Amino acid sequence: MFALVDGNNFYCSCERVFQPRLQGRPLVVLSNNDGCAIARSEEAKALGIAMGAPYFQIKHLEKTAGLTALSTNFTLYGDMSNRMMEVAALLGPEQEIYSIDECFIGLHGIAADTLTARAWRTHRQIAQWTGIPNCIGIGPTKTLAKLANHIAKTADRKPKPYPHILAKVCNFAAMNEQQKAYLFAKTAIGDVWGIGRRIARQLQTEGVCSIADFLQLNAATVRKRWSVVLETTWHELHGQPCLQLDNQPGPKQQIAFTRSFGQPVTSQAELASAITTFATRAAHKLRQQHSQTSQVVVFARTSPFRQGDTPYARTIVTPLLSPTNDTRAIVGAALVALQQLYRPHIRYCKAGVLLLGLTERYASQSAPQMELEWEAPLESTSQKARQQRLMTALDAMANRFGHGTVVLGPQLSANQQWPMRQARQSPCYTTRLSDIPLAIM
Ligand SMILES: [Mg+2]
């Protein structure tokens, strides 16, 4: 048995925890550089604001409809997510964190007749302890748990598509066949986890509109006409588990840190500062997953949307002589690449650093060998140990005081960094000492 715990309108809910005056009012969170809406409260959806709507098209609603638009605050969302996940983990013995606001919980060993009550308790604990409204779906497969969550989330929307009693917590395991058949007939096939718009449209043209229609098909037909993946979904909807709980996701195969600039960047010094920031952050992520890299990729390009700008895009791949996790070596390689790709009088709008060729780093490899030309010390064992301690200290400071507290030479310090338009960002209420709210308005 599986549960799927999901925070409702997660980014908006995180903001509302600390700004309760935003409760019940239309709220959107904007993408990097305040470009477009990437999260919407129910009230914002009711105003007809689409996912991805450009800010300039909805800006007038701030005056006419009381809309609030905020810049993203991933420090806040990440921290609130950790808190929510910790409480959600109390629901069962295993947890797979599926996204920033969703996790699967493995429920084996828990008495079936207690599941609904347990889920209600977790639902209330998350709301009480973190302030995040949430829904929980339970089912014998991951796909059914996901579907139960969808029902729990939509059951109290208007017009009511599902019985109100299923709102917030919905447990397929507590239903009889007739109740399940009713829900399957009421739910569009496109609402099922993993069935995208294109497949849903194809199925509809074949007369398969609801889950009930889909379950009437024959498994072999589904595989032959569509795919093995869709056949898996078919089995899962029939209550036959095919998807396992993935509670130990492997390390990422590549690490990327890329950003669009709020204002175009032309000077080499500014671009070097940005690249240093990106490489530093990527190296931090690399060490968090205990990996090392053997290839540093740097790219920078102009905007395809700015007419009149000379178009330019360049990517440089630098293989490292030996794998490393040292920020200084990675930044060094990235800056040499930047020297090669930089052209004056170009208005750069986006740049990034990617780390490829990742391998696991073993504890015995206490330090990387920096055999790169610009920094080729002959390292003794004690030097290696010191180098690794330096990286550990760098990570500890970044985790505690924020990225940009300690920076390498070419990087501007945190308060004068290359500009990103995030004019409407809320404080880091839970992670920055100076931002801790003294009173909640
Ligand atoms: Mg959600």
- The CATH architecture category of the domain at 2-7 and 76-237 equals 2-Layer Sandwich
Helix/strand structural class: alpha+beta
Q: Mean pLDDT across all residues, rounded?
A: 88
The CATH superfamily of the domain at 2-7 and 76-237 bears the name Reverse transcriptase/Diguanylate cyclase domain
CATH topology of the domain at 2-7 and 76-237: Alpha-Beta Plaits
Largest sheet: 5 strands, mixed
- From the alpha carbons, calculate the radius of gyration and give it in angstroms: 25 Å
Would you count the extended β strands for me?
A: 13
Helix-strand pattern: EHEEHHHEHEEHEHEHHHHHEHEEHEEH
Write a compact overview of the structure shown.
The chain has helices at residues 10-18, 42-46, 55-58, 61-64, 74-88, 115-130, 142-154, 177-186, 197-205, 211-216, 219-225, 228-237, 268-288, 327-341, 381-401, and strands at residues 2-7, 27-30, 37-40, 68-71, 94-99, 102-106, 134-139, 169-171, 255-265, 291-301, 313-324, 348-356, 359-360. The strands form three sheets. It has a five-stranded mixed beta sheet.
What does this structure look like?
The chain has 441 residues and is α+β, with helices and mostly antiparallel strands. Among the domains are: 168 residues, Reverse transcriptase/Diguanylate cyclase domain (Alpha-Beta Plaits, 2-Layer Sandwich), CATH 3.30.70.270; 123 residues, 2-Layer Sandwich (Dna Ligase, domain 1), CATH 3.30.1490. It contains 15 helices and 13 strands. The strands form three sheets. Strands 5-6-1-7-8 form a five-stranded mixed β-sheet. It is globular, with a radius of gyration of 25 Å. The site of magnesium ion has 5 residues, from strand 1. Keywords: DNA damage, DNA repair, SOS mutagenesis, SOS response. GO terms for molecular function: damaged DNA binding; DNA-directed DNA polymerase activity. InterPro entries: DNA/RNA_pol_sf, DNA_pol_Y-fam_little_finger, DNA_polymerase-Y, DUF4113, Rev_trsase/Diguanyl_cyclase, UmuC. One of its GO terms (cellular component) is cytosol. This is Y-family DNA polymerase.
